[in-house]
Each structure stands twice: as C-alpha cells, then as structure tokens.
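Action item from last week, closing it out:
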Amino acid sequence: MRHEEINNPVFWLQDAGFSAYLIGNQVRDRLLNIETDKSDVDIATNAKPKQIMSVLKKSSIIPASVDEKFGVVSFRHNSISYEVTTFRRDIYNGDFGHIKRYPDFIKFVQVAAEDAVRRDLTINAIYLNPRTGKHLDYVGGLKDIDSKIIRVIGEPDIRFQEDPIRLLRVVRFKHLLNFKYDPKTLGALKQYAHLIKKISPSVVKKEFLKIQSLSNYSSARKELKNFGLIQTL
C-alpha cells in the first residue's frame, strides 16, 4: 500500500481546519517497517461525526456506518476501509461486577493527549501527522516498539476488567509482532484470564479467528491454553 494514498483522508480533515492523525496499525507498522494489514486504516481527529461526514461529502464519500455516541465514522475508499474516530475519554464507573465492555460515559475532547489514555496498548497509541512526519506519543509507545514490548496503557488489572477482550488482543499482538510481555501486563493477564468467560462467544470467536490467522498460531494456541483463556480449541 502506498502511504500517500492512505494519508489523503487525514489531509481532507486537516484542510478543513481539524486536527487529524493516523493511529494504530498503520503507524506501528511504518515504525517497524512491516505490513501486517494493508486494508484497514484508523484515523483520530477532533472533528465530531457530523463534521467528519461533511468533510467526506466534499470528496463524494458516503459513510458505511456512523456511531455518533462513540464518535466513529467508517467508510471505504479505493478498496481500503477507514475508521475515523473523534478524540474522546471513556469513563467507567469502576463497578466491574457486571462486564459491559463499554464505558458508562463518553466525553469528546479536543486533544490527542486525552484520547491516548483510553486506548489499549502503548504500541497502538502513537499518533502520526503524515503531513509533517511528526509522531505524538503520550504513553511510551515509541520506547516499547524499540524494546519490542507489549504493554497495556494504564493499570492492566483495571483495563482487563473494563473489557476482557483485551486479554486476547494482548496475546494476538504479542504473537503477531513476536514481542514480549511487559511483566505487569503479563501478571494481570494471568490473574484475570477467567473473565474471558463473561464475554459473548461471538465476540470471542471474532478475536480468536484473528489469532488463528497468525503464521505462528500453534505457539499462540499453546499460550492461550496455558493462560486458561481458551478451554477447548
């Protein structure tokens, strides 16, 4: 995939006066000089959904889906899937007796620094302005990429209780990239592995299919069983 092509929607938002950055797999892969996913691009912006839709309309693009509550606008352009998300804070009430997977409150914010802390892994929370080539890193993602570390943002025991599907995502990215676990993340992963049973089987299956597609699936499978994340495979 040519980087210039996937940069265009970022430029559309910037030219309309908004802050906009690439985030997630495209940024991580550029830093690692690899390509793990050619067809999915994530963009973070301070534009709200209606503003994002207005910008897309100028380029004759109709969104495939819009979630105004979570600030997510999805669309396809030149055979590439884009997900544009408004900077936000995810607020949980701290009661994890009932797993909901989603925050109790959403608050849209204006700066990437506030958005970064809600994301799952440090290596996936690096913002890239493709126009300037500058990276914004508020959670130590650049250092963890250099050290090949998988680290949950914030307190891993809290983050896993907020959304236990993160347990599987941690394992997937570890094996996708051949990285190693941050010790604190690994400890919490083992402690809270049982929470995966509270997640809908359909949601677990979707994440597990991504793990099955890994070239080193056998080692990931062994680790999942050792952690007790998957009882029967």
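Closing note: The chain has ten helices and eleven strands.
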